[in-house]
Amino acid sequence: MLNKKLLFLTVIIVISMGCHSVANTVNTVKTDRLRNFPAEISEGDIVHVATGEKITFSQLADSFDGARIIYVGEVHSNKESHELELQVLKEFYKRSNGDLAIGMEMFKRPHQEILDKWTNGEISEKELLYSTDWDYEWGYDYNHYKEIMDFIRDNKIPVVAMNITKGFGKTIRKKGIEGLSDEEKETLPEIDTTDVYHRKYLERILMSHGHGDIDMSGLFEKFYQVQCTWEDVMADSISKYLSSPQAKGKKFLVFVGGGHIIYHFGVPKRVYRSNHLPYLTIETYEKRTLNPENDHPLFAGDIPLQPADYVKVVQLPEPKKTKVVLGVMIRNLPEDETEEKKKEENEKDRKYKVVMDSVREDSPAGKAGLQAGDIILSMDGESINRVFDVIYNVRQKKAGDTCQIKILRGKEEMTVDVTFFESKKNG
After folding, report:
1. Rg (Cα) of the chain, in Å, rounded?
2. What tens digit of pLDDT does each residue of 77-101 get?
3. What is the pLDDT of residues 28-63, one digit of tens each?
4. Whole-model pTM?
5. Residue 71 and residue 281: Cα distance in Å, rounded?
6. What angle do CA 25, 171, 217 make, to 5 degrees?
7. Which runs of E-coded beta strand occur in 153-250?
8. Residue 123 to residues 40, 102, 127, Cα–Cα distance (Å)
9. In 10 A of CB 273, how many CB atoms?
10. What is the Cα–Cα distance from 157 to 246, expressed in whole angstroms?
11. 262 and 201 in one domain?
């Protein structure tokens, strides 16, 4: 019998897994029950699930004309999945004559104003990532989304921030919806936890992790409440936009984790019940070697539904390449610690000094002679006002690149040339 703490940690892991990878569902259907789904599939194949026919992207694009909404279920960490999103975005934008809006799971509803500024070209990429807390709230590699976001900005396509914040979800996970404050509850739409097949699907995910013999009772219910809240909030964000004056005549494209659209009962069904607009779903499926004795990850035996309208087959991602690091531990050092300053300034607007608490000797920083206690003033001529500025600048570098770092050591300012190289260590 597993203890509750271990099970709770497992639930947290499952929430993340269920969001973005269709292939993580439990295999329960024998291959001879896959209806018309082809037995042999290859990377790049697009399958029309209802007929089992392999089609071209051009044929897929022809189906866009009959849809008001298109959902693309991504695998967050798969580059090919995002390449499909970009391809669909460009084609749907062209076919809608530019009359298109986009909903994105990657951004939280409180960040809508920031997204509007991005669309209007008012903020930089760096400010977008900082102001939306990308690393904390989303955490996946922005480079996978960069071309998508650039296309959005270049064409001034409205973007709807669909998601709840991490903190919101954590509260429900610990205390359930009833644990939210009255003010928080007022921000929520009606949460539907009645879909039998949806429940089966999520129970199946937990069973796949070896918990089929465990009575999860209230623990599962909290997990299920998080998932339903997550999906109803995203559906509500889409529905509210589509019913607004600015959406008149617009087509709508949704980028969301594949687990939120598989079998339609996550986000698509919840949107459809509010507006009955025609839609289609496209799932990303990571190709795996299948044992004929095992079941297929896309089809669940006790869920008699098609997983999606179309499936695009992609390869499993290659192992992550080693990134360059600076090799320092840094922190924000407030320029002014007065209580009045804290009250007057929004935390995100505050400027700091960035100080090095430690420097690894075998790192680019260490080999360049940087030391603990050094304050970073600028990098390649750009002022450093917070830890995020350093992180963002380092992310733009690759092995062999150099960076001029201006520091304050004691009372002396100096400039140090740092050459980056690959490292297996973080920091």
Report:
1. 24
2. 999 999 999 999 999 999 999 999 9
3. 444 444 667 887 889 999 999 999 999 999 999 999
4. 0.84
5. 5
6. 55
7. 159-163
8. 47, 19, 6
9. 11
10. 12
11. yes
The answer to whether 256 and 299 are in contact (CB under 8 A) is no
Query: CB within 8 A of 300, min separation 6: which ones?
Result: 25, 26, 28, 29, 200, 201, 204, 263
413: CATH:
2.30.42.10
Tokens standing for residue 92: 């749907």
107 vs 158: CA distance, rounded Å? 13
Element (H, E) at 17: helix 4-20
Structure tokens belonging to residue 80: 């090919």
Share of the chain above pLDDT 90, in %: 63
Q: Which two tokens stand for residue 30?
A: 């024998």
Domain that holds residue 190: 4-314
What value does the mean pLDDT take over residues 148-170?
A: 92
Q: What are phi and psi of 301, to 5 degrees?
A: -65, -35
How far is Cα 300 from Cα 344, in angstroms, rounded to an integer? 55
Number of domains in the chain: 2
Judge if 291 and 343 occupy the same domain. Answer: no
Instruction: Tell me the C-alpha distance between 83 and 63, whole Å.
Output: 19
Q: Both tokens of residue 44?
A: 């790049």
- Spatial CA neighbour of 261 closest among 238, 240, 245: 238
Examine the domain organization and report whether 166 and 260 are in the same domain.
yes
